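WARN no homologs supplied; continuing
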Amino acid sequence: MRYGIFSDVHSNLEALDAVVEAYKKESIDKYFCIGDVVGYGANPRECVERVSRLVALTVAGNHDWGSVNLFPLSYFNPLAAEALLWTNRQLDSGCAYFLESLKPVYQDSSLTLAHGTLDEPQQFNYMFDDNTADKTFRLLDTNICFVGHTHMAGIFKKDKNGNVTYLRKLALSIEEGSSYIVNAGSVGQPRDGNNQAAFCVYDTTLKTVEIKRVPYDIAKTRKKIIAAGLPQYLGDRLLSGR
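OK structure emitted
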């Protein structure tokens, strides 16, 4: 089985379309989204519609819930909160229902999905360090978990001796006895210094994981954000991937 797994689209239609096009070359059997379909960008309705048609399942992100009043705006910085209020006004009933129905965790026999962490997943904690990762490893019933939220692609590994390390490489072969937490990065608002859209391919037969990047029309996305009356910074930051 080849899974296409991606996160943090953030209403960036150009980035999402570029990722979907790139996936066509990957022989994907099933798609999963790790949350935050909306927020920040100018095309929330279009992104929800595309994701809901494409994926087998989406887990809730904080912006998804925030846009439909299921998560407090006080959690967000002022620019993010402003964008969420704007997003709420753009959603039709079908899109709102889709976002309201999202759950914070998914697990099957092959993998686990959570937007932030498995400990208090509904609080959307960030996973930046080994200690935070280990809390999720201790709750993990599969050998691999996919997360997003930080917008920074990367992989945590817990070996058979219980040692947790952060791997700089973005492609790996899964080792027997080890567990992994894979941050798929962000489709629509990368923050790891690479402004290209990120997406992940997980092959359960080959036992491989690879996080890939694809360019998209950032200038067009930025112009749409500004034209919509959203804060200009939300468009400007896309240029640097920060």
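The longest helix spans residues 78-90.
OK
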